[in-house]
């Protein structure tokens, strides 16, 4: 049975003190109110990783994640953070290929393939993001667009490594725009992605992979989205910055 996962992506928000307060609140709430079948991941800015890692490592179903990693092991790459650095502060997950990294920093499918391989080599679980912008959705080309992202970044992996990847579908047109993909639209894309993986590997492997919805899930729509048969949780942006809102999203993942 595949994992139910709700990951909070704080993006570039909050001071060091804000982050510790938020992490502490979420951890206490999860311990008190959430079924342990759901894995909660806090994907913090780099400055919080070490301190938040000390809080999460004692809590079975709350995990630490980073928002990015380098495709290089080490060296003269000013401003970059390696997977070994992430492991050294108890990170277990890392977001790779978020739409903002693709759009603002021009990360390519080929570069992301290197990052995925690097993360796996260090024992980190990649949360690999994929998704289409508005013009692609309006042209009804979303399925070939998103499956190509999966093909070019993930399909060189062995079966054993592919099983370790979590996928997050981001309808870019629904992030921070006030629009949200309907549960039907989310389910349709998740089903297409799962079948695409099955065609490359096997139905059994595809059935094991968690595919998260990453398009502005909030307390008022999370339960409907997470009820879809191929939606295994969410990669949560804005709602992850308020502990009570985030908890409500987590609790919607049943």
UniProtKB/TrEMBL annotation:
<feature type="binding site">
    <location>
        <begin position="237"/>
        <end position="238"/>
    </location>
    <ligand>
        <name>substrate</name>
    </ligand>
</feature>
<comment type="subunit">
    <text>Homodimer.</text>
</comment>
<dbReference type="GO" id="GO:0004807">
    <property type="term" value="F:triose-phosphate isomerase activity"/>
</dbReference>
<keyword id="KW-0324">Glycolysis</keyword>
<dbReference type="InterPro" id="IPR000652">
    <property type="entry name" value="Triosephosphate_isomerase"/>
</dbReference>
<feature type="active site" description="Electrophile">
    <location>
        <position position="98"/>
    </location>
</feature>
<comment type="function">
    <text>Involved in the gluconeogenesis. Catalyzes stereospecifically the conversion of dihydroxyacetone phosphate (DHAP) to D-glyceraldehyde-3-phosphate (G3P).</text>
</comment>
<feature type="active site" description="Proton acceptor">
    <location>
        <position position="170"/>
    </location>
</feature>
<dbReference type="InterPro" id="IPR035990">
    <property type="entry name" value="TIM_sf"/>
</dbReference>
<keyword id="KW-0963">Cytoplasm</keyword>
<keyword id="KW-0312">Gluconeogenesis</keyword>
<feature type="binding site">
    <location>
        <position position="176"/>
    </location>
    <ligand>
        <name>substrate</name>
    </ligand>
</feature>
<comment type="similarity">
    <text>Belongs to the triosephosphate isomerase family.</text>
</comment>
<dbReference type="InterPro" id="IPR022896">
    <property type="entry name" value="TrioseP_Isoase_bac/euk"/>
</dbReference>
<dbReference type="InterPro" id="IPR013785">
    <property type="entry name" value="Aldolase_TIM"/>
</dbReference>
<protein>
    <recommendedName>
        <fullName>Triosephosphate isomerase</fullName>
        <ecNumber>5.3.1.1</ecNumber>
    </recommendedName>
</protein>
<comment type="pathway">
    <text>Carbohydrate biosynthesis; gluconeogenesis.</text>
</comment>
<comment type="pathway">
    <text>Carbohydrate degradation; glycolysis; D-glyceraldehyde 3-phosphate from glycerone phosphate: step 1/1.</text>
</comment>
<dbReference type="InterPro" id="IPR020861">
    <property type="entry name" value="Triosephosphate_isomerase_AS"/>
</dbReference>
<feature type="binding site">
    <location>
        <begin position="9"/>
        <end position="11"/>
    </location>
    <ligand>
        <name>substrate</name>
    </ligand>
</feature>
<feature type="binding site">
    <location>
        <position position="216"/>
    </location>
    <ligand>
        <name>substrate</name>
    </ligand>
</feature>
<dbReference type="Pfam" id="PF00121">
    <property type="entry name" value="TIM"/>
</dbReference>
<keyword id="KW-0413">Isomerase</keyword>
């Amino acid at each position: 049975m595949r994992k139910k996962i709700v990951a909070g992506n704080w993006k570039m928000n909050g001071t060091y003190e804000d982050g510790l307060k938020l992490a502490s609140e979420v951890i206490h709430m999860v311990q008190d109110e959430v079924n342990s079948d759901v894995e909660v991941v806090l994907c913090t800015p780099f400055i919080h990783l070490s301190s938040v890692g000390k809080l999460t490592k004692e809590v079975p179903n709350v995990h630490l994640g980073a928002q990015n990693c380098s495709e290089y092991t080490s060296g003269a790459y000013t401003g970059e953070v390696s997977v070994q650095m992430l492991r050294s502060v108890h990170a277990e997950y890392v977001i790779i290929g978020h739409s903002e990294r693709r759009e603002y920093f021009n990360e390519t499918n080929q570069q992301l393939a290197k990052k995925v391989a690097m993360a796996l080599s260090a024992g980190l679980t990649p949360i690999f993001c994929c998704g289409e912008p508005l013009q692609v959705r309006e042209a009804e080309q979303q399925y070939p667009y998103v499956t190509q992202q999966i093909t070019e970044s993930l399909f060189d992996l062995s079966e054993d490594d592919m099983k370790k990847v979590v996928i997050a579908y981001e309808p870019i047109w629904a992030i921070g725009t006030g629009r949200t993909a309907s549960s039907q639209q989310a389910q349709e894309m998740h089903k297409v992605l799962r079948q695409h993986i099955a065609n490359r590997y096997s139905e059994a492997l595809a059935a094991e992979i968690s595919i998260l919805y990453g398009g502005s899930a909030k307390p008022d729509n999370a339960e409907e989205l997470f009820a879809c048969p191929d939606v295994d949780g969410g990669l949560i942006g804005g709602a992850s910055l308020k502990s009570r809102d985030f908890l409500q999203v987590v609790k919607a993942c049943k």
